[in-house]
Amino acid sequence: MKKIILILTLCLPILTFSQHTLTDNEMVRIDSLFQVYEQTDSLQKLEIKLLNTQLLNYKQLHEQDSLHISFLMEKTTLLDQRIELYMDLTKELEPKWYNRPGFQFFLGAATIVGASWVVSNVR
Question: Looking at the whole model, is its pTM more than 0.90?
Fold first, then answer.
C-alpha cells in the first residue's frame, strides 16, 4: 500500500508539470482505488495478525503435546519398573523348597519314625 502511495506521489508532480488536469471522474476513480487499496491493506494486516496469533497457539499446543508425551513416557517407564519390582517380590515370597507341603509331610513322617526308632533302641 505504501509503495502505491509513494509511486502516485512521485508521479503527481510529473503530471502537474505536464499541464494535464484530472477530471472529476478520474479523481473519483483514483479516490475509490485508494479506498479499496486501504481497505484491502487493513484486511490483510488483520489477517496477518490473526495468522500470527494462530501460529503462536499452534506452537504452544506443540509444546504442551511434547510435554504430555514426555510425561506419558516417564509414566510408562515407572510402571515398567513397578512391574519388575512386583515380579522380584513374587520370587522372594514364593515358598522355598523346604516350605512346600509335600516336603514338610515327609519331614514330619521322618521325624516321627526317627523318634520312635530312637525310643525303641534306647531301652
Answer: no
